[in-house]
Amino acid sequence: MTSPRTYSDFSQPLWRRVLLTREMAVIVLTVAVVLYSLANVPNFDGPLTVKFLLQDIAPILLIALPMTLIIITGEIDLSVASIVGLSSVMLGVLHDNGLSVPVAALLALLLGAACGALNGFLIAYVGLPSLAVTIGTLALFRGIAVGLLGTKAVTEFTERWTDLATDTLGSSNIPVVMVPFVVLAIGFSLLLHFSTFGRGVYDIGLNDEAAHFTGVNVARTKWILFVLSGVVSAFAGVYYTLRFGSARGDNATGMELQVIAAVLLGGVSIFGGRGRLHGVIAGVVLIGVIASALRLEGVTVNVTNIIIGLLLIASVISTPLLSWVATRLPRKAPPSEEPTTPKQATPAGV
Amino acid sequence: MTGSSTPVLELRDVSKSFGPVVALRAGSLRVEAGSIHALVGENGAGKSTLVKVVAGVHRRDGGDFLLGGDSVDFGSTSDSKDAGVAVIYQEPTLFPDLSVMENIFMGRQIVGRGRRIDRAAMYAEAEGLFGRLGVDLDPRRPARGLSIADQQIIEIAKAISLDARLLIMDEPTAALSGVEVERLFAVARSLRDEGRALVFISHRFDEVFDLCDTITVMRDGSYVATHRTEDTSSPAIVAEMVGREVADLFPKTPAEIGEPVLEVEGLQSRGVFHDVSFTVRRGEIVGLAGLVGAGRSEIARAVFGVDGYDAGRVRLNGREIRRRSPRAAIDAGMAFVPEDRRAQGLVTEASVARNVASVIRGGLARAGLLTTGAENRAAGPWAGRLEVKTNALDMSARTMSGGNQQKVVIAKWLATEPDLLIIDEPTRGIDVGTKSEVHRLLSELAGQGMAILMISSELPEVLGMADRVLVVCEGRITADLPRADATPEAVMHAATRQLEVAG
């Protein structure tokens, strides 16, 4: 094996790799909907729209971060909204019993971690399917949450903390909760796209057996992701409770489906192995913008749900549809000197 | 050979290729009614392909295929069934939740008046079939939980109820106990005495000589010879199975053999392998030979930590390796090119660079951050050294040829600069050009002092490459042969338990 050959790093020019992606399509669609709404929807350009929009989608944005990694490994976590509810109740009950909000919140985060660790243990180490496990813990955690408080709610929280949850940064309309979100978003992006752990996450989703043969600790990776999901969900629960000043067992019921819908809309494959975090963030914002614009138009929530549902189905169909269309179209010559659809090297000997 | 009457099955120079791979060059077989005919040959000799042509799974590319004197051409397995051919595989696939009777009559239930399924008639016929075969099986019980031997009997009953003229049994005894084998043979003999023709494929010569009237040997996809059982002997058959020039095909340049790198002691995994001990030294290529299913790959997987084991020790460079942790094995200096490169060796959907850098990427991170650029810089030279054919490092390995994929897998492991390379079926399913490249590379690596444990089902590859050959049979090492003593006959005898040499 003499005279080693060299390779170019990429088969496609930079603009194609950046612009012709599923994520960019979601971002462009989001910007288009925002521009359309600014022009046509009354009060969409009002000062409070951004504030309420971001406050509304903050829990979904937060939970979507670990959910993206979990779905990329080919698993799913349906218990996230129940962890929101349970941590909300935990915060309320502990505060009611005299603990300060930060201490109660910290304990709520630990409880979230414990919930995630239970999910992760059953899925990663016992080897049960995540769909079944987290449907079970969805009911379990929600049941405990509602059981602890019944139909009551804890509404007495130290004002300093509820104010913080509804405050904006300086004179801007950006809610304070965006600060921890941005920090977490950067952290999860680095973890998924710029770390060996993240490479393992993709490998597991594409071929977990090959990942195992390569030395990726498949079980530990999955366990860590479910613990992260539990902690972030609990953090979303603390925020949710303080924002509305109300700790209830049924807080955020059904939010898991909103999170998963946004993750899939953002270009993550439900079969694992594919997707990027900026697409998911755009997906959450897109759903939030559509919901917000329709609400300002006076459209009922049911119609909003119908539209978001159709959008999700359209986005899921679009990928196979586009590749089907691509196979039908006669192949054109590459537009630039750079080959865009390189053929695989021929199999036979040198 | 008698040759007086028209044979039930006659194949003359049948060929079959899959793309560039010739699986069957010139397969010939002549099976008379009322006889049991053995078909023997090494792994990859073309037996299975021949059977699949007769069963209608594959269409032949050329040659003559006569059934009862008439030329036939089966397009599907149902064509062959209609013509009276039945194939009993090593592990039958029954519907576990249906009853034995329902499995026998699947798809062709007896219907009575008004197209009503006549269960009573089917039970009666099933009982009649088992009575003829002399076996005691309840047609009413579900198939789930039946032993493989009983499942084979159901397949045979199905074949007889279809009035099959020709029964082909593809390694039926591989998973059977002694008593079960005896019962199967009794059934086979009674079918022969009814005038049916049977083809029996087995690696166990004692069974072949016990049961069969005639033996046909295949090698390299071609017919070699046919003998009446009483006119031949086991060593003569082995010689015909392996007899080809192997010495200069796979040259291993002599390397200086140094201190032990891998030491395996008393490794055991219940029901898989037992008391496995061996050593691989610096500069040495040790071949692990044996039949498919003997436990070679399982031993390699346990050594590397992909699977666990019940007892024993694995040491690399004198240090014991934690069991069931591929990461620990990698960190200690082991590399493992697995048998199934698409399922185990590669993440085919990921790029060439990601795959090549996948084991070493932990060391490529700067301040915890890993970039595609760093992966490309590390992967490029290794892909280049192996001459991986790709346009760019971000191309996925999915559409690559087998040989090219194998180069990616080898590049990925050589990038770890291992002390021990375990390579399972290094050249399976890859083209001849790449094959010799891989052999040259292994020889070169050993020359540089790497210890290599090579598993191969191709005897010429093992004999040509290995300094020492360990033969595995039924989960035990039955021979440890230095290069000089490793003749095809010696290896085949140990692999089929004709020789009992302590490991």
Question: Which properties best describe this structure?
Answer:
heterodimer; A: 350 residues; mainly alpha; ABC transporter involved in vitamin B12 uptake, BtuC; globular; B: 503 residues; alpha/beta; Rossmann fold; 6-stranded mixed beta sheet; 17 helices; 33% helix; disordered C terminus
Shape of chain A: globular
CATH topology of the largest domain in chain B: Rossmann fold
Q: Quick one: CATH class of chain A?
A: Mainly Alpha
The domain tally of chain A reads 1
Largest sheet of chain A: none
Overall CATH class of the largest domain in chain B: Alpha Beta
| Rg result of chain B | 25 Å
DSSP summary: helix tally of chain B: 17
Share of helix of chain B, binned: 25-40%
Which pair has the most extensive contact? A-B, 39 and 60 residues
Outline the structure in words.
The complex is a heterodimer of chains A (350) and B (503). By secondary structure, chain A is mostly helical. Chain A has a single domain (20-35, 43-318), classed as Orthogonal Bundle (ABC transporter involved in vitamin B12 uptake, BtuC), CATH 1.10.3470. Chain A is built from 14 helices and no strands. In chain A, helix 2 packs parallel to helix 13 (277-296), helix 3 packs antiparallel against helix 13 and helix 13 (277-296) crosses helix 14 (301-328). Helices cover 33% and strands 24% of the residues of chain B. In chain B, the strands form 4 sheets. Chain B has a 6-stranded mixed sheet with strand order 6-7-8-3-9-10, sandwiched between helices. A 6-stranded mixed sheet of chain B has the order 16-17-18-13-19-20, sandwiched between helices. In chain B, strands 2-1-4-5 form a 4-stranded antiparallel sheet, with helices on one face. In chain B, a hairpin with a 2-residue loop joins strand 19 and strand 20 (476-482). In chain B, helix 8 crosses helix 17 and helix 13 (372-385) crosses helix 14 (402-414). Residues 498-503 of chain B have low confidence and may be disordered. Classes of the chains: A mainly alpha (350), B alpha/beta (503). Chains A and B meet through helix 9 and helix 10 of A and helix 10, helix 11, helix 12, helix 13 and helix 14 of B.
